[in-house]
Recover the amino acids of this structure.
């Protein structure tokens, strides 16, 4: 079997994907048709522009999300979007997915209803797409301010009383150029005390002071980690903080110059825990298979490397021990049969 086919069929683990960044153009067009009756040409162009095919800046990337957000303001739209995303990951042979999303209040839905709809839909997807196990990491968007973050935490804390089998951690994301980490420390400590793991976007842009503070604060996984260097790299290594590497996202946002120069290479070669992730497969026009294929070709990975990377992803996931064992068996079977 050729390598691309082997990777496509391989059972994969996705740990860093944002719901509204994961909508394919096809899904956006379907949602737009349902929302506005008929898809007009103008909206078709807007949907097609969702994908970032050229190299843009990170700031440009953040201008894309409102296109998806406009189509997930109702319970119906949100449900359809989420089901499409889970289907797409499942069709790409992702067997375990930790999906992130920021609970939002819209004119049609409160934040509580947003979170409830997402959780209900994940449960529904369990019967529709039984080959994929989905968990949720509610996101705090750092660009929306501390009051919004407090509100999100209080809603998540309430939901945890009955849905802790699905809600596994908290993601801190949003435009890293806006606001400072200091404001969010207290809230994230509360999350930790509430048995939530922390997956924090850190060092996506070059801000070594903030990166230092975040690494000292600690986290269960680091999103991107692009600019973790020198002393900060030593801290990340001492603490063995797993890093979620999103090759195409970083390339298209211009935070790394080329695939070859991606920090994945040094981290992997120095045996630091790393995982390959898509970030926003809709925006960046990628899949987890594509990311593995790119990594395999760029860094000349062997099938043993692919197996080790996949098993490491299970280790650093927020699944429970029984779930981890189950996924590991699927992966090992694929590689060793
Ligand atoms: C930081 C990002 C991101 O939550 O509406 N998001 N945050 N860095 C990135 N790198 C490119 N990509 C996505 O999904 C979209 C939201 O995820 C965050 C942003 O807050 C974006 O608005 P949800 O489902």
């Amino acid at each position: 079997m050729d390598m691309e086919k082997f990777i496509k069929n391989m059972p994969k683990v996705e740990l860093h994907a944002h719901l509204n960044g994961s909508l394919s153009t096809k899904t956006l067009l379907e949602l737009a048709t349902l929302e506005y009756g008929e898809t007009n040409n103008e909206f078709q162009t807007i949907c097609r522009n969702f994908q970032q095919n050229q190299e843009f800046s990170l700031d440009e990337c953040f201008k894309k999300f409102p296109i998806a957000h406009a189509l997930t303001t109702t319970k119906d739209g949100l449900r359809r979007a989420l089901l499409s995303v889970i289907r797409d990951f499942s069709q790409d042979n992702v067997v375990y997915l930790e999906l992130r999303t920021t609970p939002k209040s819209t004119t049609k839905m409160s934040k509580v209803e947003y979170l409830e709809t997402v959780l209900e839909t994940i449960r529904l997807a369990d019967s529709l797409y039984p080959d994929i196990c989905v968990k949720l990491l509610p996101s705090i968007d750092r660009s929306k301010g501390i009051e919004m973050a407090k509100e999100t935490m209080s809603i998540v804390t309430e939901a945890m009383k009955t849905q802790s089998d699905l809600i596994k951690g908290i993601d801190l994301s949003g435009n890293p150029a806006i606001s400072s980490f200091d404001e969010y420390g207290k809230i994230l400590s509360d999350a930790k005390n509430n048995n939530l793991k922390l997956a924090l976007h850190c060092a996506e842009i070059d801000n070594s002071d903030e990166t230092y503070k975040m690494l000292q604060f600690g986290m269960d996984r680091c999103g991107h980690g692009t600019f973790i260097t020198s002393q900060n790299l030593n801290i990340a290594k001492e603490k063995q903080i797993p890093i979620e590497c999103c090759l195409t996202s970083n390339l298209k946002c211009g935070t790394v110059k080329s695939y070859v120069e991606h920090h994945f290479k040094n981290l992997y070669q120095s045996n630091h825990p790393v995982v390959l992730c898509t970030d926003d497969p809709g925006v960046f026009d990628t899949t987890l298979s594509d990311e593995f294929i790119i990594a395999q070709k760029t860094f000349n990975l062997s099938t043993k490397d692919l197996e080790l990377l996949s098993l490491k992803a299970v280790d650093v996931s927020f699944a429970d021990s029984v779930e981890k064992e189950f996924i590991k068996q699927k992966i090992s079977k694929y590689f060793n049969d």
Remarks:
- Residues 18-21, 61, 65, 69, 101-102, 139, 141, 173-174, 201, 204, 249, 253, 279-280 surround N6-methyladenosine-5'-monophosphate (CB under 6 Å).
- The longest strand covers residues 133-141.
- The mean pLDDT is 95.
- The chain has 17 helices and eight strands.
